[in-house]
What we know:
The protein has helices at residues 6-22, 27-62. By secondary structure, it is mainly α. The protein has one domain (6-62). The longest helix is centred in the last third of the chain and has 36 residues, at 27-62.
Amino acid sequence: MEKLTYSEAKKELEAIVAAIESGELDVDALTEKVKRASELIAFCKEKLTKTDEELQKLLDDID
């Protein structure tokens, strides 16, 4: 996951949601997709939090 970008993670999440909404996944595939989605959500949340902290620090340095 280290080389994954936020945009790539978001795109993969969108594909997972589309697959789930289509109803074409069997139970085993659904379980794997939900697990992967959970990992991607955690990754995106961490990336957004880190970006917010960096931006806040930059803004504080400007003042």
